[in-house]
Amino acid sequence: MTLTSPAPEDPSQKDAAPDTTQPYAIRLPAVDGAPAVDVRVATPQGERPPGGWPVLVLLEGEAFFDTAAQVAGRLLRRSAKTRVEAMMTAGVSLSGVADRVAAYAFTPGPQGQAPEPRGAALLARLATEVLPQLAALGADLEQAVLMGHSMSGLFVLEARAAGAPFARYAAISPSIWWNPAVVAAQPESANLLVAVGAREEMEGLPPAHLARRMVSNARDLEARGASLRVLEDEDHGSTPYAALPAVLRFAAPY
């Protein structure tokens, strides 16, 4: 494991905005079927709470970490109105992985697309290596939230069903069509946020898209106790960004 500390403070930034964060980088090499993992971490400026910061762990960090960290900092400026608290954000990226679908999958898929799913190995790596490193940087693991989108959103649901050590879960446009049984496997509790774009299941889409039941599957999760956000005018690609404020409020309730 390699941990890179923050760069030395720049004196010219003494008057920087209060949401300025300090970046850390953690690199875990591939081992025992689990992929190499790169983790970028941003911690809020200011004094750490006695128990540590809540932490939002974002899968596919290469796509979402920068935006999430910036939005978290901006919304923190007026937390009484935005209802967003100070939190650590950690973006988890897979490194050197040819089959990213298999890396997040727990099952082979409806047509056996991933004959060697490796999601369980990735989850073990998150639980036994990534979370302890985040705790060492000041995270409160009793307030750890796991977020994923699409196949990594399905990973979030599989992790929750497996009893992973996260306090809350945010599944954004999860690919439940890959393993519909994951819905019935969910615990009936309120520690799950699901967001989906209304345009992911609407008239005019190709039959193959409609067959995936993106909104309908999300409503099935709502029936089992999940908090659901159906975002008007959003599609599969835009939903994770549009859902970020709701995810941040869910990660660290004001």
Question: What characteristics describe this protein?
Answer:
Esterase-like; 9 helices; 9-stranded mixed beta sheet; 31% helix; Rossmann fold; alpha/beta; 254 residues; globular; 9 strands
Describe what this molecule looks like in 3D.
This protein is of the alpha/beta class. The protein has one domain (24-251): 3-Layer(aba) Sandwich (Rossmann fold). It is 31% helix and 24% strand. It is built from 9 helices and 9 strands. The protein has helices at residues 61-76, 79-82, 100-104, 119-136, 151-161, 207-210, 214-222, 239-242, 244-251; strands at residues 2-4, 21-28, 36-44, 53-59, 88-95, 139-149, 168-172, 192-197, 227-231. It has a 9-stranded mixed sheet, with helices on both faces. The longest helix has 18 residues, at 119-136. It is globular and about 50 Å long.
List the helices and strands and how they pair.
Layout: E1 2-4, E2 21-28, E3 36-44, E4 53-59, H1 61-76, H2 79-82, E5 88-95, H3 100-104, H4 119-136, E6 139-149, H5 151-161, E7 168-172, E8 192-197, H6 207-210, H7 214-222, E9 227-231, H8 239-242, H9 244-251
Parallel strand pairs: 4-5, 4-6, 6-7, 7-8, 8-9
Antiparallel strand pairs: 1-2, 2-3, 3-5
